[in-house]
Design brief:
Elements (H helix, E strand, L loop, with lengths): L2 E7 L2 E9 L4 E4 L11 H5 L7 E6 L5
């Protein structure tokens, strides 16, 4: 659905899915028992029509 990207900050690498979209950025962060695809239903329902959606990939949950 989106494109996996990485950002390097403070000596660590963070991964996220960039779903694109229009408007202010919205960062989705899942709980420990989920993963970044937990939000796929929101993306499919049109969330990117209202915000630029980024879904954080937690390495511990991957």
């Amino acid at each position: 659905m989106g494109e996996q990207k990485f950002v390097h900050t403070n000596g660590i690498q963070l991964a996220y899915i960039d779903h694109g979209g229009e408007g202010e950025p919205l960062i989705l962060m899942h709980g420990l028992s989920a993963n970044c695809h937990h939000f796929d239903g929101l993306i499919a329902a049109g969330l990117t029509q209202h915000a630029r959606v980024l879904a954080w990939i937690c390495a511990a949950a991957a």
